[in-house]
């Protein structure tokens, strides 16, 4: 089988199966093998790797993954694509297509079932953009045996993942993802390598799981503090905490004291604080009201 990720081959497959792409499912298929090659190279795949793909589409990236990996397990929500994938990936016996919504799948159980004989599990995907954040957060929070993620998404969202404190894109998502992984940018991807081209530019980012998670105190409470600080981006941390804590207004002085005890100026904004600083605040706080 020739490479699927070309305009000619993609058109041929769509015609053969009389397939109309669904915008509502984020169906923008890759039609440039330079991009699939670069994704494969930055994923460090070898013949002992198990790959989880989200949204194989017509198999453009799946085909390349199947060439290099031991096994590929791919979640595709669109039932119409099953016969297409059966056709386009017929040469690869190491691919398991699961017709499931990734947000509802039991990925941990599926890894045990399909990827039990691999040395390393990784996620490689051109994600459906409309659910990028829930996909990433669900997978990270599920504590899966996944070593790294090489994922394509809308550029604006990817920039939030790699953002440093103080930058425009930095927010609670940056902090949450950087708590679990070391994040780096692989490449910016223009619109014209997709069929049909999406409205936005894309980015590929790599998330490498940290060997030890940082000690931030009670984790749920820590993320509540982070989200609280970004409640209204333009407000100071003191003002934000005054409005998110129950009775915060009447406890202005004690909130101020608590911030000062953690060496944080109450007049700064949450967007300049690092995870370490939130963690310090968290450890000084006994319980955050539900
Ligand atoms: N991997 C292909 C490529 O690079 O050409 C297709 C990527 S396309 C951006 C996203 C794919 O995700 C589509 O095939 C779409 O049907 C699928 N998808 C959308 N929502 C999904 C969900 N909740 N669970 C699993 N797959 C989903």
Fold blueprint:
Elements: H1 7-16, E1 29-30, H2 33-43, E2 49-54, H3 60-68, E3 71-75, H4 81-88, E4 95-98, H5 107-114, E5 120-126, H6 132-141, E6 146-154, H7 155-162, H8 172-180, E7 181-189, E8 194-195, E9 202-209, H9 219-229, H10 237-244, H11 252-261, H12 275-284
Parallel strand pairs: 2-3, 2-5, 3-4, 5-6
Antiparallel strand pairs: 1-8, 6-9, 7-9
Helix pairs in contact: 6-8, 9-12
Protein name: Ribosomal RNA small subunit methyltransferase A
Domain Ribosomal RNA adenine methylase transferase N-terminal: 35-211
Family: Belongs to the class I-like SAM-binding methyltransferase superfamily. rRNA adenine N(6)-methyltransferase family. RsmA subfamily.
Description:
The chain has 290 residues and is an alpha/beta fold. It has two domains: 7-209, 3-Layer(aba) Sandwich (Rossmann fold), CATH 3.40.50.150; 219-287, rRNA adenine dimethylase, C-terminal domain (Helicase, Ruva Protein, domain 3, Orthogonal Bundle), CATH 1.10.8. The chain contains twelve helices and nine strands. It has a seven-stranded mixed beta sheet, with helices on both faces. The protein has a two-stranded antiparallel ribbon with strand order 1-8. Strand 2, helix 3 and strand 3 (71-75) form a beta-alpha-beta unit. The longest helix has 11 residues, at 33-43. The radius of gyration is 22 Å and the shape is elongated. The N and C termini lie far apart (56 Å). S-adenosylmethionine (SAM) binds next to strand 1 and helix 3.
């Amino acid at each position: 089988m020739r490479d699927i990720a070309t305009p000619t081959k993609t058109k041929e497959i769509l015609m053969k199966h009389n397939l109309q792409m669904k915008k509502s499912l984020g169906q923008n298929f890759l039609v440039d093998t330079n991009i699939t090659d670069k994704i494969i190279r930055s994923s460090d795949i070898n013949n002992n790797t198990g790959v989880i793909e989200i949204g194989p589409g017509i198999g453009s990236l799946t085909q390349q993954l199947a060439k290099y990996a031991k096994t590929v397990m791919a979640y595709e929500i669109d039932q119409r694509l099953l016969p297409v994938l059966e056709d386009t990936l017929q040469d690869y016996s190491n691919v398991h297509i699961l017709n499931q919504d990734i947000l509802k799948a039991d990925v941990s159980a599926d890894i045990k079932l399909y990827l039990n004989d691999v040395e390393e599990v990784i996620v490689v995907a051109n994600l459906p953009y409309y659910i990028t954040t829930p996909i990433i957060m669900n997978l990270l929070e599920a504590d899966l045996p996944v070593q790294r993620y090489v994922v394509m998404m809308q550029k604006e969202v990817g920039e939030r993942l790699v953002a440093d404190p103080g930058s425009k894109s930095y927010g609670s998502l940056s902090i949450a993802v950087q708590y679990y992984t070391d994040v780096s940018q692989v490449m910016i991807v223009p619109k014209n390598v997709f069929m049909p081209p999406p409205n936005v530019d894309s980015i590929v980012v790599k998330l490498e799981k940290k060997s030890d998670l940082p000690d931030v105190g009670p984790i749920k409470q820590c993320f509540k503090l982070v989200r609280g600080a970004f409640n209204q981006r333009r407000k100071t941390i003191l003002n934000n905490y005054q409005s998110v804590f129950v009775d915060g207004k009447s406890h202005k002085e004690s909130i101020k004291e608590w911030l000062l005890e953690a060496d944080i100026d109450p007049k700064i904004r949450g967007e300049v604080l690092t995870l370490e600083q939130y963690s310090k605040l968290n450890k000084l706080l006994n319980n955050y009201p539900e």
